[in-house]
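User: Sequence in, structure out. Go.
Assistant: Echoing your sequence, followed by the structure tokens.
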Amino acid sequence: MFIGRDRELASLERMYVSDRFEFAVIYGRRRVGKTALINRFIDDKNAIYFMGVESNAAQNLENFSRHILEYVNENAGESIFRSFQAALEYVFKLAENQRLVLVIDEYPYVARASKSLASTLQMLIDRYKDTSKLMLILCGSSMSYMEDQVLAYKSPLYGRRTAQMKIQPFDFSEVCRYLSNFSAEEAALAYGVVGGTPQYLLQLNDTVSMQENIKNIFLNPISFLYEEPINLLKQEVREPAVYTAIITAIAGGASRMSEIAGKVGEDTNTCSAYLKSLLHLGIVQKETPYGETVSRKTVYSIADNMFRFWYCFIMENTSLIARGARDLVYNRIEPHFSEYMGKVFEEICRQYLWKQLLNGSCPVVFSSLGRWWGNDPTEKKQTEIDIMGEQDKNTALFAECKWTNEKADVGVLETLIKRSQLFAYKNVHLYLFSKSGFTKGCMEEAQKYENITLVSFADMTAIR
């Protein structure tokens, strides 16, 4: 079942109907659904689809030639183009009188083996862009290569593309669409466990409980996801052991650079280089308090839900899992799920607020959302606000998110009001999000104010 990607498909369709030369760069992490998106787009179109392999230039040229000749219904037995330039020029000429889509998937594999490929493409684009109706799509999973060697200023292809798309994991609402048989709470846990990466969502079975899913896909040593984080790191980085140590440190509660370096046993400069790569891959995220840029307050956390779940619960239990003790491991980790889901719920609430903004239902027109933490001078202690967003110097919103089995009471609301007063905004709007709803006292107190919105998880997922 293909879901989501409506904006991406619409953008590709607009490019296609222009009937002039178009060049789209599509990139994103492995397993995120780039190839599925492209296949959906070209399903009813004249297209040559070629996926590069991690081999030499001759092998890739032979495969490319075969796909071209199959498209024109010629026997590829003896007919291999003598060079990528000859093959690509043939395709450009094919598209002089007809709309044709050429897809080179896993482009980095091909370009690394054929060093002159980018320059060849540059030359042919410049020569044929005014006469050819070709729609060229270059796709790649190596984000560093695609950004540095295709999109960057130093690349021969710089300035030739007409669009670029960084494909992101699904958000929570799209996950709910896919896992339609789950309850809203099970869908939230599923999102917390595997995130929005389509290939990981495919491992879930929404006709059985999330308890069974976790046992089957994480606590099973032969499952696809059992060693996925380690395997993914091996594909993306040169020293996966060091990266694993850093992610483990963050999963264990180390959030500042000095704390991470201390746990890993490396100096901060070394850790900084590794963290930069993890940030680039979207596995780790860096935060400062909302509205601040002071580096000494920077903290790091695991951004990818599947990585976070795996490093929080699976890695330390691999010996037990390998011995088949999946029930024992599940009973060990299940009591921690509610606490674990706190940060996941915050992200779901941020997504909800963005949707409210885009459909015109949010009273504060913010440009970004983030978390804030700092000193409360009244109580003389550190405090934090789950979500904050500013419209201008006078207007902002503040939100608290509670993922507990108890209804949020009036004390939670009073705390949110008090924390919002740490700032000098004249106009504020407060959101209180709760998994389990609100006590009568909390609702009565909220009704006294015009600037407070109570949102239960049931309200957020009423339309699925």
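User: And one key feature?
Assistant: The chain has a mean pLDDT of 94.
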